[in-house]
Amino acid sequence: MEREYGFELGLCAALEQETEWLLARQLGGAVADPGQRIVDVVGVVPGPAFADRARITASTIPPAAVEADLGVGRARPPKAAFDCRPERRAAVVADAVDCGFLTREPDDTQPRVRQTTRYPDEWVGELVAIENKPDLDRPGGLREQLRLDASLALFDRVVLATATHVTGAHRNRIPDPVGIWRFDPESGQRRIVRSADRLPVAEPGIEPRAYRDGRTDISVVSPAAKHRRRRRIAERAYGKGWRPDAYPACARCEPTDDGRPWCAAYDRVVDPASECGTDCPHHDPADPPVVDTDRLRDARTPWQRAPDGTVDRQVGLGDFG
After folding, report:
1. How many CA atoms lie within 13 A of 107 on its CB side?
2. What are the tens digits of pLDDT across the range 204-225?
3. Does residue 207 sit in helix, strand or coil?
4. Model pTM?
5. How far apart are CA 209 and CA 223, in angstroms?
6. What pLDDT score does 34 carry?
7. Rounded to an integer, what distance in angstroms lies between the CA atom of residue 176 and that of residue 181?
8. Cα separation, 145 vs 140, whole angstroms
9. pLDDT number for residue 2
10. What is the model's pLDDT at position 312?
C-alpha cells in the first residue's frame, strides 16, 4: 500500500510537470453504481472553454446547480429550480452561492436565485482515467476494473501505469483499448509502452455490475447519463487536486518541492492518513509543515486559486437570448 501511494503521487507530480492537465486522485468512475469503481488518478485535459470555467471559481461547482432549471437571464425560486429534498436544496444553493455560480436575487415575496454566468460545457477536452498497478505480478482485480472502463467508455482514454517490465503475457490480460505506461517514481521517467485508444464516450456504455457463475449482471448506460457523470467527475477533479489535505504533525516530514509528504526516517513518500501518527516508531511530534498546496497548483497548472469570479458581472441584453 505504501509503495502504491508513493507511486501514485510521483506520477501525479510528473504529469503535472509534463502536461497542462488537472489531476485528482481517487474519484468514482462508474455511473449506475459510482462507488463500485474508484479510479486512482483522473486527468482533465483542458478544452477550448477552460478559461471561462477557471474564472468562475477555484472550487467545485455543485453539479446539482449546473443541472438545475436556471439560467443567467432569469431568477427562479429554488423550489422550482431544484428537484430534490428541501435540506439538500438548501445545501446546494448555499454552496453554489458561496462559490459564485449562483446569486440570490432580492424579492419581496419569496427567495430567488439565478446563475451568474452560463456554464461552459466545453471546458473539458478529454477525461483520462489512470489505473496504478506498480507490481503487475500482483494484479488483484485489475482485469475486471479495466474491462469495466473499456466497456462503459466513461473516460475518453484509459491507461494502466506500472513500474513492472511489461511482458507479452501482461499485455494479453489488458483490454486492447487500454494504454500502458511504465513509470519510475524514483526518477520521474515515464515511457509509453502502448498508446491508449479513444473510447466512444458519446455512445451507450455497458457497465458490469456483478460477476456470477456463467453470467455477468450489467446496466446499459445512456449517453446522457454518461455526460452528466463526466461533468461531475471533471468538477470534482477541478476542486480537489491530488495533494494531501493534511501533512503529518511530525518533525520527520520534509515535503518535496512539488508538495509530496516525504519522510526523512523512511526516505520515501508516506501516506499521512495511514502511516503517520503516534503509532509510528519514528514519530517526532511537531507542528505540521506549512505547504501552500493552492500556490503550487496555481503555479504548475492552468487552475486559478483566486479567479475574478462572475458575481458582479453585468448581464448584457445578448445574454437573455
Report:
1. 14
2. 999 998 777 778 889 999 999 9
3. strand
4. 0.92
5. 18
6. 85
7. 14
8. 10
9. 58
10. 55
Q: Which three cell numbers stand for residue 263?
A: 519522510
Going from the C-alpha of 303 to that of each of 25, 36, 57, 233, 319, the distances in angstroms are: 16, 29, 10, 16, 26
The grid coordinates listed for 279 are 503509532
Q: How confident is the model at residue 321 (pLDDT cuts 50, 70, 90)?
A: very low
Say which DSSP state 289 is in: P
> Nearest CA to 237 among 7, 17, 26, 30?
26
Q: What is the 3-state secondary structure (H, E, C) of 62-92?
A: CHHHHHCCCCCCCCECHHHHCCCCHHHHHHH
Cα dihedral 111, 97, 117, 316 sign: positive
What are residue 24's phi and psi, to 5 degrees?
A: -145, 155
Provide the sign of the torsion angle of the four alpha carbons 311, 316, 317, 321, taken in this order: negative
- Per-residue HEC secondary structure of 103-141 comes to EEECCCCCCEEEECCCCCHHHEEEEEEEEECCCCCCCCC
Domain 2-51+122-240 sits in CATH at: 3.40.1350
Average pLDDT over residues 173-184: 96
